[in-house]
Amino acid sequence: MSQEKDPHVRIQELKKDKVKFVLENVDLALANSIRRVMMADIPTIAIDMVEIESNTTVLPDEFIAHRLGQIPLVSTNCDEAIRYTRDCTCMDGCKYCTVILNLNVACNEEGKTMMITSNHLEVALWGEEVDQSMITAGDELSKRPDNFGQPVGKDEIGVEPILITKIRKGMELKVRCVAKKGIAKEHAKWSPCSAVGFEYDPHNRLRHTTYWFESDERAEWPLSDNAQLEEPVKEDEPFDYNAKPTRFYMDVETDGSLGPQEVVLKGLQELQTKLANLVLGLKQEPEAEMATGADQSLPQTNGHPTAGWGAPAAGAGGWGQTSPNGTGAGAGWGSPVAAGAWGGSPGTSNWSAPPAAPTGWGTSPAPAGSGWSPRPPGSAGWGGSSPQQAGWNV
Amino acid sequence: MNAPNRYELYVLEEGERPVEIIEDTKIPNAATIKVVKQDHTLGNLLRAQLLAMPQVLFAGYKVPHPLQPHFLIKVQTDGTITPTALLEQACTKIIGTIASLEATFKKEFQMSNIGAAVAEDAYGTGATTSGFPGDRDYLDF
After folding, report:
1. ipTM for the complex?
2. Residues 7-46 of A with CB under 8 A from B
3. Which of A248, A273, A310, B39 shows the smallest number of beta carbons within 10 Å?
């Protein structure tokens, strides 16, 4: 990755529902991950369940439910302002994890077609009919803006509402919609982005693509606006096959449920969270292996100066094993990394705490020397996940 | 009816561990790391970062099946560091890059917001006022 230079961003255009920017000095993979995360991993709210009380319109119930689901709802600060229903303590829906929208429209006018639109959806206030005893109260509600959960652009001048269906005299639609929090990996209706433009190398200098053409490539493939920001490829220029893309032109267009600024920043945070969770998982991994066996047999001795992990006194076997038929000499990871990277400081090391040393598996020097010592699979010190295999409890 | 919950594609189950390390028995300093409930977003990013690190001899990732929500990342190092430690280092490095990117973004957004304070009112109310430069109104946005 282009670590030599700091990543650089230039915003070309910022509007209410879109942002165009140029990303420089980042890796293609990073730029693409940002794009992916903005499209699929940012939570918003959308109608997820529709209770139909009366539907005498020309459209069937499921048709209407589907259309309702795709209406963008204002989801500002969705991270903190609402819970996932699956995480909530309530039985089925409460004010902390759902937003209720009601729609009740009937046409009584002779000879006129009436349009049922997103403007008819009203956010309902929560009564006390829900059993409160199960629900853990939270401060979610205070983090919501006033228009949280309303259809985007509701009753705003100049914003065309979204048509749900058209009705004539004598027809009626009465529904209760339950909007929930979700992400676009589950259903695209939760995506805050309507489109994300992503372009690099507008002149195809890197030849990541080949253009099909009838007779003249240049004439048949018009250049994008971004092409003006880069030097065109000269006729006699030699091809640099080592070149990597460094400039990315992105154009994030939102559906209004979140602002473009929130989408970009939340996207970056989401990506960091993913990575942080992975780091956490990697750190916990070896401990979990130990814990499976250790918590039954020698919980107290772990972290004890003499029985700590990889304490030099514990013999040549991998992880400071005290068990007689644990890994013998030659097992374990005899890498030349400093001896006793685990529990190197006797007394302070505690296996239940996240290991401070990033280089985890250094053990006391194994006879086999550097590299992974050969050993029969399944008999290893830490490799086996079951206590029996690891030889801990015997 | 018996369809699994869709959120199972990206939420760890109760007690499920996010990573599983499968050490390679035949290749020295190599390991395959299974990352559950994650996809190309992370897989490709990590692969690219690992390949940019000098200690790496091999790095590659795959999503074995599109319906199974996990990916495998295979790393072989030159022996100065274990694959797991290296992967951890890669993660920390990317987090750093993103953090600095985030800071630049915040700064840029702040600047743009000052310059385009009017555009914030792009829809509706402001349309009738003369808040827009020239002849532009909300239709231009």
Report:
1. 0.82
2. 7-11, 14-16, 21, 23, 26-30, 32-33, 36-37, 40-41
3. A273
